[in-house]
Amino acid sequence: MAYGGRMPRDTLTREQIVKAAIDLLDDEGLEGLNMRALGKRLGSAATAVYWHVGSKDNLITLAGDEVWHQIALPDLATMDWRTAATQMATDLHAMLTRHSWLVQAFGSYMIFGPGKARHDDHGYAVYEAAGFTGAQADQAAATVFTFVLGNALVPAAAASFTKKLGRDGGNAEALMHESMAKAHEIAAQFPRLRARLDTAATDYAATPDNTFQFGLQAILDGLEAQLGAHSTPSDLASPSAAGGDASAEHARIGDV
């Protein structure tokens, strides 16, 4: 039985610990994760948590990999590559927004495991289905990923800053308002920034609605143009150009 109301280590599982860690990271951010707080959530001693996951760093990499399972893998047999690429990129953006601490973790931890591998493997399949092969498929996937990650940076920084203000014991809302007022004061010294302060977007770092969707489609347009630019008249007349043998299409694009 549990000692002093705590759960003995043999009743904990790694899966329970990782799930609780994700919840704690969502609530408190990367800096707010510690084994004592996690043990309290689990009703267990911090030493029991260490016994299952080894270290805080290892726990962060486990949690960071687990959330990649939240991204759906579109069926390439039933949809075109652009729809699949859009769905995966949109799901990735939503996941990074829900778990903003993961954006921070990329800078300090090697996040790779079955969850991310599952996502990456299917991502390559999407761009291979488009007609990219070899290094070009990798470049296409990396281009979209870095765009999505870049769009997640600002909200992740804002979430981290807000959580930090709360942990420091001050009035997070008031301190955030003070910080934004300073940003507005600086921005007002520059004509184009000043003009944007007078729009409906009240946050200095805010962007117009649908900016993410606009940028993603622009990138996919560019990737599609890369494929089209390397098509020859004979290619366009071939069975593969009409939706025939996928392997022939891949071979045609091999020298993009």
From TrEMBL:
Portion annotated as DNA-binding: 34-53
Comp. bias intervals (Basic and acidic residues): 247-256
Coiled coil: none
Alphabetical UniProt keywords: DNA-binding, Transcription, Transcription regulation
GO terms for MF: DNA binding
Region ranges (Disordered): 230-256
Location of the HTH tetR-type domain: 11-71
Skewed-composition ranges (Low complexity): 233-246
One Pfam entry name: TetR_C_1
Top-level taxon: Bacteria
GO process terms (BP): negative regulation of DNA-templated transcription
Protein name: TetR family transcriptional regulator
Protein's organism: Planotetraspora phitsanulokensis
